[in-house]
Amino acid sequence: MNGLFIGRFQPFHLGHLEAIRFGLSKVENLWVGIGSSNKGIERRNPFTADERKEMILSSLEDKISSRIKIYYIPDTDDHEQWTHLIDSIIPKYDLVFSNDDFTQALFQKHGITVTPVPLMEREKLSATNIRKRVTTDQNWEELVPNGTKKVLEKINAKKRLMVL
Length: 164
Known about the structure:
It contains eight helices and five strands, in the order βαβααβαβαβααα. The chain is α/β, with parallel strands linked by helices. Strands 3-2-1-4-5 form a five-stranded parallel β-sheet, with helices on both faces. Helix 5 (101-109) links the parallel strand 4 (95-97) and strand 5. Helix 2 (49-59) runs antiparallel to helix 7 (146-154). The longest helix has 13 residues, at 14-26. 32% of the residues are buried.
C-alpha cells in the first residue's frame, strides 16, 4: 500500500520527520509531495522546492529514504481540481496523511481515506516559529534534523529571511 504526505516544509523540521515515520509505519511506500512548488521565494515560502527536497532527503536515514519518493506539487487556483492535478503527478496512493481540515475534505470528496498524523510539540515545531527563531537568533537548530540545518546554513537562511 502507498501513502501520500503533502507539506510545504518551509523548512522541513522534526515534526515533519516524525510524520514521515508515522506514515511509513502504516504503508509500504510514502510519496512526499512538496506543496507550493511553483512559488518563487517569498515571505510565506522562503525556500525553493529544490532546497526543500534537499532538506528532506539529507535528513532521512537510508532505510527510510529507500521507501520514499518526492514529488513537486504546484499550487492551483482551482481547489476542486487540485486533487486531480495531484493524481496526474503522483503514482497510485491508497491513503493520505494530513491534519489540515481543507485537505482532508478535498481528498475525502475524491474518495481517498485520510489519516491524521500525531502532532509533535505543535507550537514549538511549526515552520513559522522556526523561521522567526532563525531571524531573531533564538535556538532553532534543535527543532530541525541535521540535514535541514546544513541546508539552511549553506543558503544563509537568516539573511534571506531578514530580506523578506
